[in-house]
Specification:
Order of helices and strands of chain A: HEHEEHEEHEEHEEEHHHHHEEEEHEEE
Largest sheet of chain A: 7 strands, antiparallel
Radius of gyration of chain A: 20 Å
Distance between the termini of chain B: 61 Å
Structural class of chain B: alpha/beta
CATH architecture of chain A: 4-Layer Sandwich
Number of helices of chain A: 11
Oligomer: heterodimer
CATH class of chain A: Alpha Beta
CATH topology of the largest domain in chain B: TIM Barrel
Helix content of chain A: 25-40%
Number of strands of chain A: 17
Largest interface: A-B, 43 and 40 residues
CATH class of the largest domain in chain B: Alpha Beta
Strand order of the largest sheet of chain A: 7-2-8-1-14-13-15
Shape of chain A: globular
CATH superfamily of chain A: Aminohydrolase, N-terminal nucleophile (Ntn) domain
Chain lengths: ~375, ~500
């Protein structure tokens, strides 16, 4: 645990500050496609990163193992691998394990050893949730092995990330070999220089990933609130609290994204006061009950899990987000130019309003844009 | 017995400026000034002066100056003038030394050793003159989660929320009992709270029926003497507060002398005119936490579960554990009153020596409730030493939902913190039941001054929040990363849960 915490936060700061470029694209029919377009798009936002972190999340990645938990683990030393392997063998049937194929010629900095596993939980009680079991084991490996870090743990998806520009990371992980129906990409601009592969985005737990651009002024209370529900924030990053907040609200409390958006980026009181009674009642109660999960300060996130991609900005839109649609393809990007670069003839392109999520759902062929009624128009 | 006590203050009158108008003579309720018609001169009995500045402010020619008595005892850090005077006073009277207002010692204040954060580069500060800045707050019990169900494509809320108090600024008027303060003061507090969308607290002396129309902005208090407590009273307020203790005198009861129980006050307090109103030290039906639960639920039953119930305690050494018990007993709001909290009358030795600074109590209570996972179950209101909007912002960042102000509200109406409230002769017409003197508080003007104060502080709170890049007060609440300490020990920083400035 100490090793990872030190790496994540070498200066012992309250929180690690960074900013970024984001890109996501999703085929709403579920048709899988290669890395060419997403990598091209994120490379076009080269200036939004500084080479200290790049990463990708790909969904529909392992169809031949779609019901197995796919773990991507980075190791800082051989001993940590031995310890992690022992823990994995205790808790899981290891169906397959291999060293991650990489291109050593890629321009990346100090890569760790990276392995990939396909796992099935074993010896677990009948009433116990598999997901909870996996989360607990991920936390255990990350804190108890002094150097092993599980950075991807979902089914039929995977995260690839490290220190370098996103295009270099793509080359290193040979992303040209993979296909998925949903790609999320991230280029990072940290203001300190941890140079730690685990600190890159996307942040992942189970099949949830979050990439994020911004800085939360509310981090202190968001974190204290999540701690009350057993989340241990070790990374000191905004992305981490975003991911845990989504986990709490969507996975554990089963709230739909439309509602979660109104918790993290709620309408202003003057807007709520002018809503229809039912709507007003809901929005008021959300702000009363979940006040500590209001994400205040500039942010854009692209969050994804199997079958869904979500874009959201803070309530007064202090960070950019553009959305575009071409046929069944939904694009989300920090900069509009990146979308045009990979899809010059869009059906529709728009800038979502602050606090209004853009949600792409698999097979619905529908993009949901939640518009807040009232004064904002 | 000849008194050995020397006057504390000296009144200086510029006889060239004095026009013998006798305003000072009429304004002073302590008979300090008198007119000598033989010599056509106004003079003063210095020993009567309490340094309230009523005469200074109202002298039309600014002829009066009040000075601390320059004649000092031999310099001694231990045997200061205050200490010597107290001993002499007790040697002459054999009594307890009474005082008013809050602890006047500097060494318990932490606000001034805490600094706030501001945004630079990585996130933008927000200009409250151009962007919305929200300080609306809801006080009361919140659930851990909301249950929503999808009914024919429509989200339906299944959770029912406990009653809440909505405040448009996180500042409420603290408990000031009718009897300790005049009717006009109560009226001004009620009207200002109504106008600004916040609340006044009745204190333990009931609420005059003439003020029932402001009930939606009144928190009615139930204290150990149960003065003025009736079904009407409980139901007219927006919330009920059980007063267990008070920061100025933890563990001590109260005593309103019979001469202060005038006809109006007797009617409101529901006791005969001219009788002493004694508040016992404890509530005699609360000797334990389960007794508190019974009273909380008795009050909730009486008001049909439509009003939040607050429980107010003085901050003492184990406040965190007590507060946790109070939340579990059903309190919707925890009101904490720190060692610097003020009073209409208290033994000075208690006021200055018993309790805990509110900053430390707040930090430990908020942290404990979070560790126990019950912070949502109650809001935290803090009182006792909030003297400007910076203190408000720091209190909220430490973990408070809102603050109570008492002294600041009185100062807004004219009080100069002379600490003589217990005499009942307040020359500003505030801490007095005397119908003649209390006319000095004009309710219209006092209301205006209180609303202005709330408005000024609220604007300042918004400026500070904007500087931090926060546009809703809920993102400040409990956000201790916005605070840093200066000149504090490691242990103090740990209890406050904040880092050292520069770290």
């Amino acid at each position: 645990m100490n090793t990872i915490t030190t790496l994540n936060n070498p200066y012992g700061e309250d929180k690690v500050i960074d900013a970024c470029g984001l890109f996501g694209m999703m085929d709403l029919t579920g048709r899988r496609f290669g890395s060419k377009a997403p990598v091209k798009a994120i490379s076009n936002m080269h200036e939004r990163g500084n080479g200290l972190g790049g990463g990708f999340a790909v969904y529909g990645l392992y169809p031949q193992h779609k019901d197995d938990y796919a773990f991507h683990i980075m190791y800082l030393n051989r001993e940590s691998k031995e310890r992690a392997d022992r823990l994995l063998a205790q808790s899981f049937d290891v169906l397959h394990a291999e060293e991650m194929p990489v291109n050593l010629a890629a321009n990346v900095w100090n890569p760790p050893m990276i392995w990939r596993y396909f796992l099935q939980p074993k010896n677990i009680a009948e009433n116990q949730s598999h997901d909870e079991y996996v989360v607990r084991n991920v936390m255990r490996i990350n804190t108890d092995t002094c150097g092993a870090f599980v950075f991807s743990s979902g089914k039929n998806m995977g995260v690839f990330k490290g220190v370098g520009f996103p295009e270099d990371i793509a080359e290193y992980f040979c992303l040209g070999e993979y296909e998925g129906y949903l790609w999320v990409c991230h280029g990072r601009f940290p203001t300190n220089t941890p140079g730690w592969w685990g600190g890159a985005h996307p942040f992942n737990i189970l099949d949830w990933t979050v990439v994020h651009n911004g800085e939360l002024s509310s981090y202190g209370i968001n974190r204290r609130y999540l701690e009350m529900y057993g989340y241990n924030c070790t990374m000191q990053t905004d992305t981490e609290v975003m991911a845990y907040a989504l986990d709490l609200l969507m996975r554990k409390q089963k709230l739909p994204m439309e509602v979660v958006a109104r918790i993290m980026a709620p309408p202003l009181w003057i807007e709520i006061d002018n809503m229809e009674p039912k709507e007003k009642h809901l929005c008021t109660m959300l702000r009363q009950c979940y006040s500590s999960l209001l994400m205040n300060g500039p942010f854009t996130i692209i969050a994804a899990h199997n079958g869904e991609m979500i874009g959201l900005t803070d309530r007064i839109k202090l960070r950019p987000l553009t959305a575009g649609i071409k046929g069944s393809m939904l694009y989300l990007s920090s900069e509009e130019a990146s979308i045009h670069l990979v899809s010059p003839h869009l059906d529709k392109v728009w800038s979502p309003r602050g606090g209004e999520p853009v949600i792409g759902r698999l097979k619905t062929l529908k993009t949901v844009e939640v518009l807040t009624p009232g004064v904002r128009k | 017995m000849k008194s050995y006590i020397e006057p504390e203050f000296i009144v200086e009158r510029d006889q060239d400026k004095c026009i013998r108008c006798k305003v000072c003579v009429n304004q002073c309720t302590y008979d300090t000034h008198y007119y000598d018609s033989e010599d056509d001169i106004v003079c003063s009995h210095d020993e009567n002066c309490v340094n309230c500045h009523r005469c200074v402010v109202f002298c039309p020619t600014r002829a009066i100056n009040i000075k601390r008595n320059p004649t000092q005892y031999t310099e001694n850090q231990n045997w200061s003038r205050e200490v010597i005077t107290a001993v002499k006073n007790q040697a002459e009277t054999g009594g307890i030394i009474l005082t008013g207002m809050g602890c006047d010692k500097p060494y318990y204040t932490y606000w001034d050793r805490i600094l706030l954060n501001a945004s630079q580069v990585t996130n933008p500060s927000i200009d409250p003159l151009r962007e919305p800045m929200e300080i609306r707050t809801f006080l009361g019990c919140k659930p851990d989660k909301l249950d929503l169900e999808l009914e024919s494509n429509d989200l339906v809320l299944m959770t029912k929320l406990a009653p809440q108090l909505r405040v448009e600024t996180p500042i409420l008027f603290s408990a000031l009992s009718y009897g300790a303060v005049s009717f006009n003061v109560h009226q001004a507090l009620a009207r200002a709270a109504t106008e600004y969308g916040t609340f006044m607290n009745t204190g333990e002396g009931g609420l005059d029926r003439r003020l029932y129309k402001y009930g939606d902005h009144v928190i009615v208090q139930v204290a150990s003497g149960r003065f003025g407590v009736s079904p009407d009273y409980l139901n007219v307020g927006a919330a009920i507060e059980i007063k267990i203790g008070q920061g100025a005198k933890p563990g001590i009861g109260g005593h309103l002398p019979g001469e202060k129980v005038t006809e109006d006050i007797s009617r409101t307090r529901m006791i005969p005119t001219g009788t002493d109103a004694l508040s016992p030290a404890p509530q005699h039906d609360i000797y334990s936490i389960e007794d508190l639960r019974q009273l909380i639920y008795a009050l909730k039953e009486e008001t049909d579960y439509t009003k939040p119930v607050s429980v107010k305690i003085a901050a003492v050494h184990n406040s965190a554990a007590i507060a946790s018990g109070m939340v579990r007993a059903g309190a919707d709001i925890i009101a904490l009153d720190g060692v610097r909290g003020a009073t209409g009358a208290a033994p000075r030795i208690i006021r200055d020596n018993v309790g805990v600074p509110i900053e430390l109590a707040l930090a430990s209570v908020d942290q404990r409730l979070r560790e126990e996972g019950i912070r949502n179950k109650a809001s935290i209101l803090v009182a006792g030493g909030i003297k400007n909007s910076g203190d408000v912002v720091k209190a909220i960042a430490l973990g408070a939902d809102a603050v109570y102000i008492g002294t600041a509200a009185l100062v807004a109406m004219g009080c100069t913190v002379c600490q003589k409230c217990h005499t009942g002769k307040c020359p500003w017409g505030i801490a007095t039941p005397d119908p003649w003197i209390s006319k000095r508080v004009n309710p219209d003007i006092a209301t205006r001054r209180l609303v202005n104060l709330l408005s000024g502080w609220s604007h300042e709170i918004k400026e500070m929040m904007g500087g931090m890049g926060i546009n809703a007060i809920e993102s400040l609440r409990g956000n201790r990363l916005m605070l840093r300490g200066v000149g504090l020990t490691e242990t103090e920083l740990k209890v406050l849960g904040i880092k050292m400035a520069g770290d």
